[in-house]
Design a protein that fits this description.
The structure is a homodimer. The first copy, chain A, is mainly alpha-helical. Chain A folds into 2 domains: 3-86, Winged helix-like DNA-binding domain superfamily/Winged helix DNA-binding domain (Arc Repressor Mutant, subunit A, Orthogonal Bundle); 92-170, 3-Layer(aba) Sandwich (D-Maltodextrin-Binding Protein, domain 2). Chain A has 6 helices and 5 strands; from the N terminus they run H-H-H-E-E-H-E-H-E-H-E. Chain A has helices spanning 3-15, 18-25, 29-43, 60-89, 103-116, 129-137, and strands at residues 48-49, 57-58, 93-98, 121-126, 143-145. A 3-stranded parallel sheet of chain A has the order 4-3-5, sandwiched between helices. In chain A, helix 1 crosses helix 2 (18-25), helix 1 (3-15) crosses helix 3 (29-43) and helix 1 packs across helix 4. The longest helix of chain A is centred in the middle third of the chain and has 30 residues, at 60-89. The structure holds a DNA duplex.
Chain lengths: 182, 182
DNA sequence: ATCTCTTACGGGATTCGTAAGGATG
DNA sequence: CATCCTTACGAATCCCGTAAGAGAT
């Protein structure tokens, strides 16, 4: 099993033709055909229907594996970028947004991370969930912490450990943003 | 980037020594050392501290990548097993639990899947969330559908599309189980 | 002196590309 | 006959294992 085979498979599935996929992958068709065959043999599963049609279509098993393969490839790509950016970000800036209710969680985490990376600057934003959503989509912030997660593509949400959130200040001015260089 | 390199890296991280990891992987030390070096060069990130200590320890970047790599390997393994079992399960049995509130979603899905795989039997259980949780942990059921997801290790939860759940029968006998061969 | 990681080199395996063979519309 | 997939073969690449070197305790 090889990452390359997963990439090949995903490309074939998306192109519908081995020939077209090979062109996109900048390799010749025969190797692609072989890699697909090897993948199917290794899995013991037929991934494509080869019935007379000109376009290859995924079998049911193929569809399931396609989703998984795509997810794995995305996770791998994100993981690589994450550690690479991590190395750079030791002297970079991370913009994080939070609702006022989650500020406690955010600020305690910031303290922890700043111990590890003294040169990492934080840029902290506060706002209501809808505003955080916009900031996130515009990449003005890299992450948001909220009790009401957004459900939209290109945005992943993760559950954080429960903490007691206490409202310390009345939310008078929810649209204002605060910048904290420390 | 290669799956093998990820496996190698994870093993090294868990063993703390290249020598021990190589023994466990049934390969010689030099190739392992090289693969690790290649991985670090490809990522552009130093994964281990080589400071005079006898045991290699993960750098901060290494720790992050270790978690990601382990997750990816698990997902890959699960994906392979999933499609392989899928092929076999065409004549197998799938045990699914559901709260009474989600039965509509479950039963409609069962109908869809049974069209694809006429020989796939379903074993459907009904019960309250806490009971489903136990059944799931004991592997008596393969999956559960509920409005109140469980948060525990070895259990993954996924959000399903919203459907209107209507209570058709009063939940008189929540602890009974029903088996539906069709 | 022992343990561990790194570098050097040769054999083996895997993969690619080009070329030829089938199958389908 | 045109298009696509598959099989066959030779060349290049990559990986592994053995052997030797370097560093640290």
């Amino acid at each position: 099993m090889d990452i390359r085979q997963l990439k090949y498979f995903v490309t074939i599935a998306e192109e519908g033709k081995i020939t077209a996929a090979a062109k996109q992958l900048h390799i010749a068709q025969p190797p692609l055909s072989r890699q697909l065959k090897q993948l199917e043999e290794e899995l013991g599963v037929v991934l494509f229907d080869r019935n007379k049609k000109k376009n290859l279509t995924l079998t049911y098993e193929g569809e399931v594996f396609y989703k998984r393969a795509k997810d794995i490839l995305h996770k791998l790509r994100d993981s690589i970028l994450e550690v690479q950016e991590l190395r750079e970000e030791v002297a970079g800036t991370l913009a994080v947004g939070s609702t006022i209710y989650c500020a406690a969680l955010l600020l305690s985490k910031v303290s922890q991370i700043r111990e590890k990376h003294p040169n990492l600057m934080f840029n902290i934003w506060e706002g209501e969930p809808s505003r955080l959503h916009k900031l996130l989509e515009n990449r003005q912030i890299d992450a948001a912490i909220t009790t009401t997660p957004f459900y939209s593509k290109n945005i992943e949400s993760k559950s954080l450990p429960d903490i007691p959130c206490k409202l310390v200040l009345p939310g008078i001015n929810h649209t204002a943003s605060a910048e904290m260089p420390t």
